[in-house]
Amino acid sequence: MEGKKVVTLLLGSPRKGGNSEQLADSLAKGAEEKGCEVRKVRLAGKKLNGCFDCRKCWSTGAPCVQRDDMAQVYEDIAAADVLVFATPLYFYSWSSQIKPVWDRLLPFYAENAKIKVACKKAALLAAAGDAEDNVFDGLKASFRLACGFTKWEIAGMICAAGMYPKSDMAEKGGKFLAEAYELGKKL
């Protein structure tokens, strides 16, 4: 018998209970109702250095040589069947909490990678105070390109514009919460 599908939520907001995390919680509820095991990884507070571009991971296929909390994040990514990246929009892109994760994915798609992560599914959940939908264009492009490199199937993208105070999602983001819940049920 096959085990439960593991859905790992990488929470990239510095605000606990913020809008992107509320989307992630809604997705988690849908996934759990469908029998998935949901694991949450809060990135705020972790020591996640930026990439040094030393290329050791590329030449050896091993995870990053840096000694920080990314080692655990690599394990979380490797153990997941589905990865969900939840982030507030920071200047039309990833939050500073989640950006180092993206910058250090290189070990997973090196030709001689010791940890294989191709064929996973990935989803993007994002929230922004800006009300215009096009503010997410850069983030979506980054997500699509990175998923292409890692050979992750895009399961969905939910981008909630016009959400800044934490209360916004509950007060006017019902559509986005429902979309996240339904996406969770499809994972």
UniProtKB/TrEMBL annotation:
Keyword annotations of the record: Flavoprotein, FMN
GO molecular function, one term: oxidoreductase activity
Record-linked InterPro entries: Flavoprotein-like_sf (IPR029039), FMN_Rdtase-like_dom (IPR005025), ISF_SsuE-like (IPR051796)
Record's keyword annotation contains Repressor: no
Ranges for domain NADPH-dependent FMN reductase-like: 7-130
Organism: Synergistes jonesii
Record Pfam families: FMN_red
Signal sequence, renumbered to the chain: none
Record's protein name: NADPH-dependent FMN reductase
